[in-house]
Amino acid sequence: MSHGHETGLTFGERTCNSIRLSFFDLPLSELSEMLCKSFSMVCKLDGTLYPPAALMNIYMSFNRMICRKQDDRCNLTGVNETRFKITEHPLFMKTTRAVNSAMKKSRDGGVEIKRRKVESITYEEERRMLDHPDNQANFARGAQKRFAMFCFTIFLIRGNSELHGVKVEHFTVAVDPKGKCYLKYEEFGYATCFSHLYS
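Predicted structure:
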């Protein structure tokens, strides 16, 4: 089967009595050997190398697919199994070494995903934003924008999807030992505090 043109990786199908088998139907030892050979010579369709992180993502995609198959089997049989971990499974030790070697080859070749440096706003820029007429808390839209800004910058809530899930009960006003009020955001047992809302 082909893993797709996005990766340039190709994994052959095995034919048995004229029946083609997907890698789901292969013994783990055979799948491991197939992946090991593939990662030892992996490259993009144009011959260039993948970034190390992309190689690990490709490898872990097989872990996710095998785990889905495992979940289906457990649901069907009602028997719990130890969760499959491709990087720790004895049959995939050689494959994991091949992946690590491919990642090292990419790093040595200078292939890395360049990430843009995060730029933070200054206190003066923040003050100008908060002082802008469109961002005042005396009308609904302004209050909403200020709330979103504090969620993103202070409470480290990431993106619209997480912001959409924020609830009133996630926030509490508390007092520190020095008598100073602060706002605390807490979800899933993890708390983030903002102590400058009140004085």
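Summary: Residues 1-19, 195-199 have pLDDT under 50 and may be disordered.
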